[in-house]
């Protein structure tokens, strides 16, 4: 028979253990700091893309800097959303509703991440788009 002291049995399972509120807090803190850095860069990227025609937007986001900044901003922001909604749901909902709401929030977050990354990759790998030219009208000189 093995004797376990209460401390030995509880080691690693306390308030600071894995999967605890402390882990969520650190995850939220790290993603908040990352978003503080990425948000101005993302605003700069989007401000330069405003007003461009479709071909210009595709060409702009096929460049590495705008695509990487946008992808990082969306991924980090949505992971922050997923962790934040899980904390909020854990605080305010009961057992069955909690499970359904956490699953729905996580599915929504991961679906938006997948759609955004797919769109960025598709723009980055699209063939060079020729600018649309206005039709030329023939001028007949008499």
Task: Show the helix and strand layout.
Elements: H1 6-10, H2 21-49, H3 54-61, H4 64-92, H5 95-125
Helix pairs in contact: 2-4, 4-5
Structural notes for this entry:
This protein has 142 residues and is an all-alpha fold. It has a single domain, classed as Up-down Bundle (3 helical TM bundles of succinate and fumarate reductases). The protein contains 5 helices and no strands. It has helices at residues 6-10, 21-49, 54-61, 64-92, 95-125. The longest helix is centred in the last third of the chain and has 31 residues, at 95-125. The radius of gyration is 24 Å and the shape is elongated. The model has no long low-confidence stretch (mean pLDDT 83). It comes from Paracoccus contaminans.
Short summary of the structure?
This protein has helices at 6-10, 21-49, 54-61, 64-92, 95-125. The chain has 142 residues and is mainly alpha-helical. The chain has one domain (23-125): 3 helical TM bundles of succinate and fumarate reductases (Up-down Bundle).
Instruction: Estimate the mean pLDDT confidence.
Output: 83
| The first-level CATH class name | Mainly Alpha
The CATH architecture category equals Up-down Bundle
Rg, alpha carbons: 24 Å
How many distinct folded domains? 1
Q: Structural class given helices, strands, pairing? A: mainly alpha
Low-confidence stretches are none
The shape, in one word, is elongated
What string, H for helix and E for strand, traces the elements in order?
A: HHHHH
For the structure shown, list the relevant keywords.
142 residues; mainly alpha; 3 helical TM bundles of succinate and fumarate reductases; 5 helices; 0% strand; membrane; Succinate dehydrogenase; transmembrane helix; metal-binding
